[in-house]
Amino acid sequence: MENEVLLPPYGTLYSVYDFIEHCGKGLFINSDGTGYYSDGRVYWRDQKAIPSDIVEGKLKFSYKFRYVIWFNK
Fold first, then answer.
1. How far is CA 49 from the centre of its chain?
2. What percentage of the chain exceeds 70 in pLDDT?
3. β pairing state of 12-15 and 4-6
4. With CB atoms 3.0 to 4.6 Å apart as the test, which of 4, 58, 62, 73 could cross-link to 53 if both were Cys?
5. C-alpha closest to that of 37 among 70, 10, 1
6. Nearest 5°: phi and psi at 60?
7. Positive/negative CA dihedral, 48, 72, 65, 51
8. Is there a contact between 69 and 43 (Cβ–Cβ < 8 Å)?
9. Rounded CA gap, 42 and 63, in Å?
10. Tens of pLDDT along 40-55?
11. Which residues contact 51 (CB under 8 A, 6 or more apart)?
């Protein structure tokens, strides 16, 4: 799959639950970087985890979206 990328050695991997908590506390905002949903082995470039969407309750639920990899700017 073209949008599926192995996790790189950089970026920070968070559980979805931790990412939700951090977004709710304002620790991540859209302009801080970019997040993508992950299964812990790969991430999907077409599945962005956007902090403002998370705060608004627009979390994407899937059995494979157990993590978010976050890349700071």
1. 4
2. 97
3. unpaired
4. 58
5. 70
6. -85, 125
7. negative
8. yes
9. 14
10. 999 999 999 999 999 9
11. 23, 28, 29, 30, 32, 35
Cα Rg of the chain (Å, integer): 11
Is the pLDDT reported for residue 2 higher than 80? no
Identity of residue 12: T
Q: 6 or 1, which is more confident?
A: 6
- Strands across the sheet containing 4-6: 4-6, 42-48, 33-38, 67-72, 12-15
The model's pTM: 0.90
Q: Are 16 and 47 in contact (CB under 8 A)?
A: no
pLDDT of residue 61: 74
In the 3-class helix/strand/coil scheme, how is the chain assigned residue by residue?
CCCEEECCCCCEEEEHHHHHHHHHCCCCCHHHEEEEEECCCEEEEEEECCHHHHHCCCCCCCCCCCEEEEEEC
